[in-house]
Hints:
This protein has eleven helices and no strands. It is mainly alpha-helical. Helix 3 packs across helix 8.
Amino acid sequence: MKRRDPAAAALSIWTALVLLFLFFPLVVVAMFSFNGSTISRFPLQGFTLHWYAKLFADRAIIEALWNSIIVALSTVGISTTLGVLAAVGIHRYGGSFAVAMRGFALRPMMVPRLIIGIALLTFYDLFKTNLSLLTVIGGHVVMTLPYVIMIISARLVGFDKSTEEAAWDLGASTFTVFREITLPFLKPALIAATLMSFTLSFDEVVVTFFTTGNANTLPMVIWSMLRFGITPEVNAIATITIFSSGLFAIAAELSLRRARDLS
Length: 263
């Protein structure tokens, strides 16, 4: 039998420990969401779906969940559209001006969320804007747009401009070139940017706190519930969110693999 490399064995053990550190808390949360007791501790006091039934019977939580989905999907649509256009424009322009514009566009990533929230609240107050889900969407777009630009720009580094030039020489319009050549090339980056934008928007608390009105999102409801401690309902919400995020990530990975196979 071949002798295993000690370095490879150490790396495997370290990888397993890192994965355990990352995912074990999520497993514990899921386990306690099915616990028959209201106290989150071992040993578990039986198996029950009572907390999920109680969760889905709470109209405030269901409304907050729908608000979060609406905000996240709206943020994804606006951020990806603006981000793709901005990244493609910066890439095509080139030069020192494009470098400066890219740095300016990525600046919100370096600003703490607290400062972004205060700045947005001041901006909305300056124009006497009533806080609502629309103001939340605007704040989330400001927060997620730099990530979209960064991901799309990274993909465009390997783009061959001669393909577009050849299509233009053959009589294709700018829109046709963008639809038939640029967008298919950007598909893996678009999927990654969409996943990133949705996750950041769906989980955001600080910016939402400063920009929301009477309509709460799911993270805001969870935050208010945590003031009374970690309850089984909170564990149930977290478990559903983890499961949904996992399905979303799997779908994105399958789509990326399909895109790579087609290319």
